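Journal club prep, shared notes

We agreed each person brings one worked example of a sequence with its structure written out as tokens. Mine is Cytidine deaminase. I'm keeping it raw so we can talk through how to read the token line rather than staring at a rendered picture. Sequence first:
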Amino acid sequence: MEIEVVELCLESLRSGCFPVGSVITNAEGQIISKGRNTIHESEPKGYPVFGNSIAHAELNALVSMKRIPDDLDVSDYVIYTSMEPCVMCFGAIYMSGIKNVVYGMKDGVGGGLNLYGLTQYYSRKKINICQNKKLEKIQAVLVGFLCDKSYVQRAGFWQTYISMYPAEYSIAEQLRESGVYDKIMANELGAAQFIDIVERSTRG
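Then the structure, token by token:
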């Protein structure tokens, strides 16, 4: 599932948005919905929420799901996201009935997974939360490409990111210097290739 999620991240990056991707799978492991960050986009491009601050990847994936019959149990569905869901997105996931969350990079500023179990309401359902370490590395490197974007400076996000992921930021800088970032932006590099490059950089 990593390739599909990362491909959505790259699409967001090319569109000038924060590079986060999300997919939802059913009980059989089939992808039934996709979403990506579309905050800075003025046209839908296949995603229902766009052009405002709530146009997050997870929200787009949830809203993009085909209408689910009332008697269909979605508790076995899984939502994969490259970054820890914010409070808004985790709340939407929780209310959707999906009980399995797989995420990548931790969000030390806006992450909302600590909402689980915090109140009586958010303690009613058993939610399985798992961190995917490969997605964590990929997402953290992608965030490192955003060093010149003003929006990452808000609320102390960039400083927190640097303190949590110094190695991944260093890799991002190396990949930018070697032309990998330019190839991504020119749509000359796909998700599978980028994942392989990051894994080789990490091993090196």
